[in-house]
Amino acid sequence: MSELHKFLFEGLPVRGMLVRLTEGWQEVLQRRAEAGDAFPRPVRQLMGEMAAAGVLMQSNINFNGALVLQVHGDGPVKLAVAEVQSDLAFRVTAKVVGDVPEDAQLEGLVNVRGHGRCAITLDPQGRVPGQQPYQGVVALHGDHREPLQRLSEVLEHYMLQSEQLDTKLILAADDNLAAGLLIQRLPVEGAGNLAGQRNEDAIGLDESYNRIAHLAATLTSEELLTLDAETVLRRLFWEEDVRRFEPTMPRFACTCSRERVADMLRNLGQDEVDGILTEQGKVEVGCDFCGRQYLFDPIDADELFIPARDQPPGSTALN
């Protein structure tokens, strides 16, 4: 069962989350395999890590809308996307061009010539006209221009640069499970700032976070993929006073629909759609996230461009 566990360290400005995606992640891979579009193993691993990271980040900020995590660049993986809604429904996909080495890491997948980027977009639900999503973008290298080899390092760098939050992130994925552990230092403000003391080294805040982050860093990918949440947290933090909350259940869900595909075809224009019909006799569109196929025959396609008031009684634009 997919689950997300939140926890706090009592008396310390440090919080954590542990996510394990099982059925939903397996459904992502199964749907793509059924659509004849299975991904190479390194790409599946990247997608799983992105799904786990997206769920952690969405839950971390509790944003009412979609959090979209993207990596893109100049390697065989031109684009990989994970999208997580406020109810922790997630979906993930990738666009791959060319061969993927079996042992490829992040640099070999998207950052071959140093042009890779990671973008995090917050798209509010029910955006009003003119309102734009927020987006932050970072390169796939550190402060000294060295390439970052893991997605977790990229996102740690993003959180420090964009949000000024120290974060330790451990991610792992195989074909059965996508998982992640996030440890983050919380800002201390106002009355919570220990009677106004500002020197964080002096009041032990850096020491506390560093100790817990160091413990988290000892977690291996194998342990994250094979041990249950209870065992992971007990092994890592058995000396800490941890307050845990009721787990929530992320799930796979795709937001594609026939209506959205129809809108996309209308945006293409009637000439473009007619050209596809002339060449293929139909218009068939597959969802990149779930593999579902949407078929529009010539009658369906014609109705896309007929105003609703002019359609015959009982007719709909989306038969």
Describe this structure in words.
With 319 residues, this protein is of the alpha+beta class. The chain folds into 2 domains: 244 residues, Hsp33 domain (3-Layer(bab) Sandwich); 53 residues, CBS domain Like (Alpha-Beta Complex). It is built from 10 helices and 13 strands. The strands form 3 sheets. Strands 7-6-3-4-5-11 form a 6-stranded mixed β-sheet, covered by helices on one side. A 5-stranded antiparallel β-sheet has the order 8-9-2-1-10. The longest helix is centred in the first third of the chain and has 21 residues. The chain starts with a strand and ends in a 15-residue tail after the last helix.
Short description:
With 319 residues, this protein is an alpha+beta fold. The protein has helices spanning 23-34, 41-61, 106-110, 151-163, 205-217, 221-226, 229-237, 258-268, 270-280, 298-304; strands at 3-9, 14-21, 65-72, 77-84, 89-96, 117-124, 134-139, 167-173, 178-185, 242-244, 251-252, 283-286, 293-296. It contains ten helices and 13 strands.
